[in-house]
UniProtKB/TrEMBL annotation:
It holds the Pfam family Y1_Tnp. InterPro entries: Transposase_17, Transposase_17_sf. This is Transposase. It comes from Flavobacterium bernardetii. Gene3D superfamilies: Transposase IS200-like (3.30.70.1290). It comes from the Bacteria. Residues 7-121 form the Transposase IS200-like domain. SMART domains: Y1_Tnp.
């Protein structure tokens, strides 16, 4: 299977999970360290719209700034984290599934849907309150604290902060009703 090349100025949904669905994060400290490595390896190479770190998988929506270096930078991030996690957990072998997944986002409506999907992950995977989930960009977008996220661009996608909240609440209700029917 040939992997899609990440192109400059394009937006992608990047995600992966632990091998065999196993945890890749066993503590909040693991998640903080992963985000620290994310900044170390990807700062100035990508711009981040949204993210969510779950115990056995992660999601990012990014825009590529530097296509010649970003794939290697992502590989370096995942390798550095896997080595650290394996050492901490006294384990060996692959931590992540073979290749990280990437889907190019080609329009604003799809981008908005992916951002909401990522933010709602805690609710629909673990039945946790996505509004207070620490390892998602949802709270960061709502805050006024300094961030590397494309906060203003995300808010503009949803028109304003109130509509950002409304759209997430509405999608959450729709997904909750759908789950009840299944």
């Amino acid at each position: 299977m040939k992997l899609e090349i990440l192109e400059k100025d394009k937006i992608y949904h990047i995600y992966n999970r632990g091998i065999n669905g196993e945890p890749i994060f066993t503590s909040d400290e693991n998640k903080r360290y992963f985000l620290k490595l994310y900044l170390k390896y990807l700062e100035n190479k990508v711009e981040t719209f949204a993210y969510c770190l779950m115990d056995n998988h992660f999601h990012f929506v990014i825009r590529i700034n530097n296509e010649t270096e970003v794939t290697q930078a992502l590989s370096n991030l995942f390798n550095a984290y896997a080595k650290s996690f394996n050492k901490q957990q006294n384990r060996t072998g692959s931590l992540f599934e073979k290749h990280f997944k990437r889907i190019q986002i080609e329009n604003e409506e799809y981008l908005k849907n992916v951002i909401q999907y990522i933010h709602l992950n805690p609710k629909h995977h673990l039945d946790m309150d996505y509004k207070s989930f620490t390892f998602s960009s949802y709270l960061t977008i709502l805050s006024n604290k300094a961030t590397n996220l494309l906060r203003n661009e995300v808010i503009r996608l949803f028109e304003d902060i109130d509509n950002f909240i409304y759209c997430h609440d509405f999608k959450n209700e729709v997904l909750s009703e759908k789950q009840k029917l299944e």
